[in-house]
Design brief:
The chain is of the alpha/beta class. Helices cover 44% and strands 12% of the residues. Strands 2-1-3-8-7-4-5-6 form an eight-stranded parallel beta sheet, with helices on both faces. Keywords: Hydrolase. Residues 22-289 form the Histone deacetylase domain.
Length: 300
């Protein structure tokens, strides 16, 4: 059965003025339930992640200051959110959503988090609406506490996964692949194991050709036994922060490429949603919903 992490905290813990387009965290499960793609049984509400698993990835000093709401004004500005206890609690729940989804994927082939994809969080700081890095935390959890020995991160958000790249820059068991708009945030890029920067306005045909050339080769070369997929829909031409030229159907085919390759190669895959900032919330929800529809169709 497809298992999907979802909690009311994903949207309702955000401060006023920051809830659009974050209302997607409520609208997406509503849409999937309404159309019959999932039932209530597919959804699970994660508990907060225990601190020891956060400290496997993030610096103790940073985590303690974050938990006590002691970040400096400049550190808070960098995250993009006013710092609050509710916000930190939200982040800790999201972290466990991805950890638990990753564990479900070991059993079922795929596990999903309606939130997550917080790839701008570094070992010792947050950036870009990200306080803690769920993909890094979940990858370290698998490497430390399960039999998983090699992880591939496939980050297809429109923005480079700079925090994930920094966290794993000295970790040979994790290969980070980021395919993103080159001239976009973050303007100072970290070094992923493989970065594929794209020109502004890159269309479906060009994007899919590149992905279909690169990803099968990476799987052959790296021989991972687990994949984390950051499936941000800010690659859409309608996205306010994206700068690429993809359609909703092109984004769907991107997801199909990743998920079909994982299924074909018998690689469990944990999916985090990542960004999406189109002016019309319907575009965001439809593009994200396609990811869940495909997972249900391909794996179950």
């Amino acid at each position: 059965m497809l298992k999907i992490a979802w909690s009311e905290k994903f949207a309702h813990s955000l401060p006023e003025g920051h809830r659009f387009p974050m209302i997607k965290y409520d609208l997406l499960p509503e849409q999937l339930l309404y159309e019959g793609t999932i039932t209530e049984e597919n959804l699970f509400a994660p508990e907060p992640l225990p601190e020891r698993f956060i400290l496997d990835t993030h610096a103790a000093n940073y985590w303690q200051r974050l938990r006590r709401l002691e970040l400096s004004a400049s550190e808070i500005r960098r995250t993009g959110f006013p710092l609050s206890e509710d916000l930190v609690n939200r982040e800790v729940v999201i972290m466990n959503g991805t950890v638990q989804a990753a564990l479900f994927a070991l059993e079922n082939g795929v596990g999903m988090n309606i939130a997550g994809g917080t790839h701008h969080a570094f070992t010792d700081r947050g950036e870009g609406f990200c306080l803690l890095n769920d993909i890094a935390i979940a990858a370290n959890y698998l490497l430390n506490y399960t039999e998983i020995r090699k992880v591939l991160v496939v980050d297809l958000d429109v923005h480079q996964g700079n925090g994930t790249a920094q966290i794993f820059e000295q970790e040979p068991r994790v290969f980070t692949f980021s395919m993103h708009c080159g001239h976009n945030y973050p303007f100072h890029k970290e070094n992923s194991d493989l970065d594929l920067p794209l020109a502004e306005g890159t269309d479906d045909k060009t994007y899919l050709r590149l992905l279909q050339e690169v990803l099968p080769r990476l799987l052959d070369e790296q021989q991972p036994d687990y994949v984390f997929f950051q499936s941000g829909v800010d690659v859409l031409a309608t996205d306010k922060l994206g700068k690429l030229g993809m359609t909703v159907n092109g984004c769907k085919e991107r997801d199909r490429t990743v998920l079909e390759l994982c299924r074909k190669n018998k690689l469990p895959v944990a999916v985090s949603m990542g960004g999406g900032y189109s002016r019309q919330i319907a575009h965001i929800v439809e593009a994200h919903a396609n990811t869940f529809r495909l997972a249900q169709q391909l794996f179950f």
